[in-house]
Amino acid sequence: MLPVSRHSIFLLLGLWYGLAPASELPPGVKAFSFDTPRNFGYVIGDLIRHEVRVEAGVGQEIDAASLPKEGWINRWLMLRRAEVRSEGKRQVLTLEYQTFYSPLEVKNLAIPGFELKLAGSDGHLAVPAWTFTTAPIRELSVLRAEGQPPMRPDAVPAPVPAFGPAAASAGFGLAALGALAWWAYLGPWLPFGMRGRYFAEACRELRGLRGQEDTQEALHRGFACLHQAFNRTLGEPLFIEGLDEFFLGRPAYDALRNEIQDFFRASYEVFFGEGAPVPPFDLARMEALARSCLLAERRRP
Amino acid sequence: MNQDNSLADSLERAKCFEDGLRQVVLGQERPIRLLTLAVFARGHALLEGGVGVGKTTLLRAVARGIGGDYERIEGTIDLMPNDLVYYTYLDEQGRPGVAPGPLLKHGEQLSIFFFNEINRARPQVHSLLLRVMAERSVSAFNREFRFPHLQVFADRNRVEKEETFELPAAARDRFMLEIAIEPPTDAAHIDQILFDPRFYDPDRLVGSAPAETLSFRELNGIAEALQVGIHVSVRLRAYVQDLWRATRRPEDFGIALHEADSGDMIEAGASPRGMSYLVRLARVQAWLSGRDRVEPEDVQYVFAPAVGHRIFLKPVYEYRRAELIPELVGKLIRQIAAP
Question: For residue A212, what pLDDT is reported?
Fold first, then answer.
């Protein structure tokens, strides 16, 4: 690729190309020129700079919509830049092309022409196609047998500094993990631990009561702690008349329906009635119920 | 044992009384049950509802079922306390006379005094009622009249606000229940009320209800017996006390209303009289449900009509009472655990 500074020298040496006779210019255009560099000696990757100079009447600016679009023009030619600037009365359109053609031998190529429109007039200024010669950088085959030095291997790319992005990824990853954990904590999706933890607490408390006889006081404590587990799991107190609704919303407890109903009936008898659980409900049965509820709560969708 | 038998017998008659009311006024199961509770708890009741939902018919049917004398007065803006006590007239010979007014003329036989549109009467009349309701007595003609069997039923329509006087807190507190009556929602009931000629003539409709299924003279005795006979456990007492505390400081029980900071919303919670009414009503409800002990659901059933009108809000919130009180009462019932 040729350095740009050399390019501008070539530009000076360049031909005044396609200078149209004044009679063919559209009305109002006083001068039109197309400046090009030398048209030979290009290799893959070279930049080619064209300049179009237009001197026209007041208000007759180059219509930006008629400029060729920046980007790939064809398979091998790219327009890197197309910009218009003013130089005194003139408008100068600079076009910077880059060729990516890799010829096997010396070859003529052409940059296609286009038409420039001027604002406020119907006239067109034809920028002609431009032909240049391109050549390969080296002979197709370079063989060691011919006494030539072998091609040097490609340079190893310099490592891109990766510490910053790596640290950032680690930081954001940690933050995301934390947020995920918090979200799971808030929601009921954690499979173990959070789900049914109130029943687990009741289980522990009932296990603590295991050694005692089924005295009135132990029964009271047992019933109260299991009630509390129901209330806290539900988020509000569960009364006997709310049981049907409770089962309706939680099919996982269906298998325990009779046991839970017995529990409530017995507990009402203990707390509001004569004091003895009817149907009979002892601490062992309570503990079994708490464990079943714990499992049901974990099974619940 | 004898008492148990008489209570069981009374329960039969109470069910008959309720059934009779259900035939007269359709689709009002809850108000009918609440009125029955008021009758057996010997409390006064205030009915509140729109126009033409059957408040008066219901009360007339209750009066017919209880028996005894029934008196009715319409609240108007120019009604004065004296109008209840006596009236003056000129007799056939043109001599002036003074006769006992609607409140006094039945003497001890008066079992139901029905005050229609109570909020149209002036506060002076309300204050006369305070004593009548609380002590069941009134002083007139230089002596005291007593009404041992008296029950005051009042109704108030909540459609109009012009030319009405809001009941003072003291008067509201003396009503055991404030019962809201909504129009029936069941299509079959509405169909019957609209198209069955039986419902066109209120007099005949009330007349079709069984008369004197209860005897008004026995009611005080039954009420006393069942207050003694129905058991209230220690745990339930604690539950009622929790409810009471929560009416005064709901924030202590973690109860907060949506838009209001309940900490400074409540001017006064339920009164001790109100809570005592609540327990009495809960006992009657347990009895009518065929139980010999009170359970939380009995308390919950009567909580809103017995306590809702006793909670007074700060003036800022009082305008939105109709939305805030049901929400607060609902939360109290749902969020306070019994066992």
Answer: 73
Residue A244 lies in domain: 197-299
Distance from CA of A271 to the nearest CA of B (A): 6
Within this chain, do residues A79 and A205 fall inside the same structural domain, yes or no?
no
**pLDDT tens per residue, range A105-129:** 899 999 999 998 888 777 788 999 9
Chain A residue with minimum CA distance to B232: A272
Nearest to B297 among A223, A224, A239 (CB): A239
Nearest to B294 among A223, A237, A272 (CB): A272
Query: CA of A265, closest CA in chain B: separation in Å?
Result: 11
Q: What does the block give as tokens for B163?
A: 């030319």
Report whether the peptide linkage leading into residue B183 is cis, meaning its omega lies within 30 degrees of zero: no
> Residue A182 — pLDDT band, cuts 50, 70, 90?
confident
- Domains of chain B: total: 2
Question: Cβ–Cβ of B233/A273 closer than 8 Å?
Answer: yes
Taking an 8 Å cut-off on Cβ atoms, the answer to whether B337 and A231 are in contact is yes
The residues in B 225-254 lying below 8 A from A, measured between CB atoms, are: 231, 233, 235-236
pTM for the structure as a whole: 0.65
Domain limits at B331? 230-335
Establish if A223 touches chain B: CB-CB under 8 angstroms: yes
Residues facing B74 on adjacent strands: B116
- Torsion A239-A240-A243-A245 (CA) sign: negative
CATH number at residue A103: 2.60.40
Look at residue A143 in the predicted model and tell me its pLDDT: 60
Same domain, B49 and B197: yes
Is the Cβ of A227 closer than 8 Å to some Cβ of chain B?
yes
pLDDT at B230 over 70: yes
Say what the ipTM of the complex is: 0.75
Shortest Cα–Cα distance, B231 to chain A (Å)? 8
Among the three residues B214, B248, B267, which one is the final residue of a domain in this structure? Answer: B214
Q: A216, A271, A278, A286: best mutation site toward chain B, by most B Cβ within 10 Å?
A: A271
Residues B175 and B241 in one domain: no
Residues in B closer than 8 angstroms to A268, CB to CB, are 295, 339
Of A115, A138, A161, which marks where a domain is finished? Answer: A138
Q: Can you give the pLDDT at residue A13?
A: 43
Q: What count of CB pairs under 8 Å joins A to B?
A: 38
What would the DSSP string read from start to end of chain A? ---HHHHHHHHHHS-EE----GGGSPTTEEEEEEE---SS-B-TT-EEEEEEEEEE-TT-PBPGGGSPPSEESSSSEEEEEEEEEEETTEEEEEEEEEE----SS-EEEEE--EEEEBTTS--EEEEPPEEEEE--SS-S---GGGTPPPPPPPPPPPPPP-HHHHHHHHHHHHHHHHHHHHHHHHSTT-TTTTTTHHHHHHHHHHHHTTTS---HHHHHHHHHHHHHHHHHHHTS---GGGHHHHHHH-GGGGGGHHHHHHHHHHHHHHHHSSSS-SS---HHHHHHHHHHHHHHHHH--
Cα A24 vs. chain centroid, distance in angstroms?
A: 54
Element holding B172 (H helix, E strand): helix B169-174
Say if the Cβ atoms of A272 and B336 lie within 8 Å: no
* B295 with A240: Cβ contact below 8 A: yes
